[in-house]
Design goal:
6-stranded antiparallel sheet; 6 helices; Phosphatase 2c, domain 1; 5-stranded antiparallel sheet
Amino acid sequence: MHLPRGVGLFSCFPSATVIEERTVKVNAAQWIGRRVRQEDAYAVRHFPQGTLVVVCDGMGGHACGSKAAEIASKSFADRFDGAKGDSVSERMRDALNKANQSVGEFFAKERAYGGCTLLAVYLSSGVLWWTSVGDSPLLVWRRGRLMRLNADHSLRAVYEQMLRDTGASDIGISQAHSLRSAVTGEKIPLVDAPPTPYLLLPGDRIIMGSDGMDDLLLSGTLPDTTKEILDRRGNNLAVELVKACEELDLPEADNVTVLTIDYATP
C-alpha cells in the first residue's frame, strides 16, 4: 500500500503461525520485505460457531501507521464476539466502527495521524462473510482459478476501469496504490460489507493479506509455479506464498502478510 506507510501484532523476517480448530486451519506468514519495519498486524479468533480472521496494513509514512494496524486488528477481534446486530454483517460493521473509534482515540491522545486498511472474514457453516476497507485483497482459489472477492478501494481499480473505457496505455499508474478509504478514526468513506455470505465449495482455499502479495498474485496471468503452489494440498500455503514473494527479489518489496484458510467439511 503506497500511502506514506506504519510494528504489527506479529513482526518477523519471515515468520509463520498455524492456528487450527476442528475443521478450520488458518496459516499465517509474514515478511518485512525491503522496509525498515513490519507495519502489518493480524488477529485470529475461534468461536463455537465460526472463525474470525482480521488483517490490517498500516499506512506507511504516516506517524504511527503501524500502531493503527495493531489497534484496529485487536479492537475488531475483541469486539466481534459481543458486537451488536442480528446478522453477521451487522456485527462486523459494529466491530469495524469500534476499531475505527479506537484508532481515532489513540491518535487524538497522541496528537498524531495515521491509518490502516482492514480486512476481516468470518467463516461459519461453509459460508464466508467479510468486511473490508482499503486495498487488502481477499481471494479464493477455486478449481484452477484465482478470484478476488472484495472491492479494491485504491485508485488502481479506478485507473483500470479508465484504461478499459478509454483504451489508453497509462493513466497515472504510479499512484495506483493510493487509497480512497482507510481506517483513520474519521468517517470511513468506503466499506465493502455484503449483506449475504459467499458460499464455499469443497476444495476452496481462502487467501487474504496485505497488498505486499499483489505482485505475486494480482499482477496479471499467474505463472505455472504459482498455480502449483495454490494447487498443492497439505502444504503451508501462507509460508509458500510468502517465500514466493521473497523470490521475486523486488528492490522495493513491501511488507507481506499472508493468511490462508483451509476448511474441511465435517
